Each structure stands twice: as C-alpha cells, then as structure tokens.
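To illustrate the input format used throughout this study, we show a single complete record. The first block contains the structure-token representation of the backbone; no residue identities are included at this stage. The design step must infer an amino acid for every position from geometry alone.
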C-alpha cells in the first residue's frame, strides 16, 4: 500500500466517524489537505479537483472502504455548487499547514459564489538615532509607512466586475527642514473599477475608471508652499476599449477613447504647472488614448510581484507611469517590500529645469503584513 493510499484509508475511516457531527466543508478540507500533503511528498500533483478526489476515492473502494468522498461530493451538489472547485496548493519555501488549509477552504468557498474579496494591511517603521557627538556626524530620523489594499470582484464566465482600492500614507522627520518637524513622504488614495464583457476566450470589451488623490499636505523643504494637499491634485480617468488576458495574472487594456481630468483645489499654495496645468488654471480636461498593463507574478507563496504600467496621450503630451512592487513573505505576519516607481510626463517642467525629465522613487521596507480573505 503506497503512502497516498494509506493516508486516504486513514482519512476515510476518520470521516466515517465524524461525518454526522461535523460541517461538510471541514471534512472535505481535512481530506484534501492531508491528501495533498501526501501527494506533494512525491512532487506529483499541484492541483486537486473534486474529479481528482473521485479518482483517489477508487483507491479507498479497492481497500473495501465506504466511498465517503462520493457522499461528500453528492452533498456539495445538493448545496447547489455551480462549478467544480479547483484546489490549488501553491509552491512554497516555507511549510505552512495553516495556509495550505486556508487555500483549500477558499477554493471551496469561491466555488459557491461569484464574488471574490481580499484585503491586505501593511505597516513599516524605520528609526535611526545619532547622538550630536557621533564621530561620523549625521542626524536622527524616524519614518513610517502604512498600506491598506482591498479587492472585491464579481466573476462569471461572460462578465467580470473588479474593484480595487489602495491607501498609502508615510511620513518622516526631517532635521534639515526648520519649518516642519514631520513631512509626508508617501500619500496616495486610489480607487479603480473595471467591467469586462467577454468577446472571445482571451479578449474582453472593457469599461474602466480610476480616481486618485492626496489626503495630507506635503511641504516643500523650508517653505510654506505645498507640493500637494487634499484633492490637490485630484485625478480621474475614464476609459473605453479592449482588455486582453492571454494568461493568468496578465491584463493588457487598450482604450482608444480615454478621458482625463486633473483638478487642483488649493491653487494658492500648490504650483499647478507641476501637474500639467497652465498658471491660473484649476481644472484640466483632456481626451486621448491610454494603455494599461497589469501583471501579477507569484512563483512561490512567499514572493508576490505586482507591476502596473500606464501610458496616456492626448496626442500633444504623453504621460508614462510604471510601478513595480515586490513583497517577500517572511512569515504569516512579517514581510519585506521593494518598490520601484519611474514616471515621465512631458507636460510638466519643474522649476529650474528647461525640459521634462524622468522622475523616480524607490523604497525598501520591512514590517508587519497580513492578508484577509
């Protein structure tokens, strides 16, 4: 008797004793989780489905056991499952039985509804203390960053409606700034919604919109002037076009018709020319075309790379924005993040420059992280 068969024999025997008292999901969860670990010991299976479990069930019947998996599957059908759940056990560097069980339970739950929900919270803190007589010089500093992300989507074979929200806020002490003890280093509130209608298996007609703004003031060093503040700027994009999804995790959206609005609420203290507006102008309306590419790559459970490329042109100016975030999971509550964010907008010429230049920022941080489903 091989390892998988022996494990299945043991699991089936346990289920027979517990079936009347326990919840059907918990029973299936235990069965799939233990079987998947036994099969992964030989690196033979990455995905289990109910159909695969029925095949494994034949092993139990050969061992003259009651086909409890068939009973479980029949009970699930009575509960009107619309699709067969696919149980994906992700490759991992760190063995985590709790996460394995959660993956299975989510797959079972997702099979019963078209709705998908997910949220992530992250918090990183950096502190540096230097005494005034430190031989190399330098100054003390304190910096913090908080990130909250949420996703809710409605997924069917013909129609998908996906909504994401993100709020990033970070600040640091600045010893060189005599007017401000703390300044905002990262401030972004963004909401994105997209509705897709399937044309062919990998191509969708798409309607999308994005709202982006700042919530806190960011001061220029040793100045009472602001770089940004609440609703300064406020950006809004609406797009109509096609969305191409050739593989899982990749989305290429092209919008031949794209409408963009930039609004500056506080024109007295924020330089509007740094956001592509003319002096004295408060709101800018443009129509053009846009391209948006999103890619999520997860080679193992502990590494998650998310990239977002955005290009917009009104046929006079071009705006290019690339954001890449890579999260490294240390354990269930700790993670590290590397962020690269180059940007180019030839409608913006900063003070002291004669032409538009590439803008760039980078972040490396370690701290608390937790994901909710």
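Output of the design step:
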């Amino acid at each position: 008797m091989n390892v998988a068969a022996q494990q299945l024999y043991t699991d089936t025997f346990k289920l027979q004793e517990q079936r009347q008292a326990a919840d059907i999901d918990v029973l299936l969860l235990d069965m799939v989780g233990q079987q998947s670990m036994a099969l992964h010991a030989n690196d033979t299976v990455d995905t289990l489905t109910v159909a695969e479990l029925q095949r494994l069930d034949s092993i139990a019947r050969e061992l003259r056991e009651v086909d409890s998996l068939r009973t479980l599957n029949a009970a699930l059908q009575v509960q009107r499952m619309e699709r067969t759940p696919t149980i994906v056990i992700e490759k991992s560097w760190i063995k985590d039985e709790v996460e394995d069980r959660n993956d299975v339970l989510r797959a079972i739950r997702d099979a019963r509804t078209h709705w998908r929900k997910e949220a992530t919270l992250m918090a990183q803190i950096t502190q540096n203390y230097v005494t005034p007589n430190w031989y190399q010089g330098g100054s003390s500093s304190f910096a913090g960053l908080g990130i909250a992300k949420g996703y809710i989507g409605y997924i069917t074979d013909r129609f998908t409606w996906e909504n994401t929200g993100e709020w990033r806020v970070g600040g640091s002490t600045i010893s060189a700034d005599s007017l401000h003890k703390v300044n905002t280093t990262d401030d972004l509130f963004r909401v994105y919604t997209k509705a897709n209608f399937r044309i062919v298996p990998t191509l969708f007609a798409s309607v999308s919109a994005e709202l982006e703004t700042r919530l806190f003031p960011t001061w220029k060093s040793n100045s009472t002037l602001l770089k940004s503040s609440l609703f300064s700027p406020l950006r809004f994009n609406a797009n109509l076009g096609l969305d191409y999804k050739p593989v899982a995790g990749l989305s290429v959206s092209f919008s031949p018709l794209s409408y963009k609005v930039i609004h500056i609420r506080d024109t007295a203290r924020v330089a509007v020319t740094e956001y592509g507006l003319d002096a004295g102008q408060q709101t800018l309306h443009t129509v053009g075309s846009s391209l948006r590419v999103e890619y999520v790559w997860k080679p193992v459970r502990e590494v998650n790379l998310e990239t977002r490329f955005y290009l917009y042109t009104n046929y006079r100016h071009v705006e290019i924005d690339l954001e890449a975030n890579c999260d490294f999971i240390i354990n269930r509550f700790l993670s590290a993040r590397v962020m690269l964010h180059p940007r180019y907008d030839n409608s913006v010429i900063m003070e002291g420059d004669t032409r538009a230049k590439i803008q760039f920022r980078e972040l490396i941080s370690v701290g608390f992280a937790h994901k909710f489903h």
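Structural context for interpreting the output: The chain is about 20% helix and 45% strand. The longest helix spans residues 24-40.
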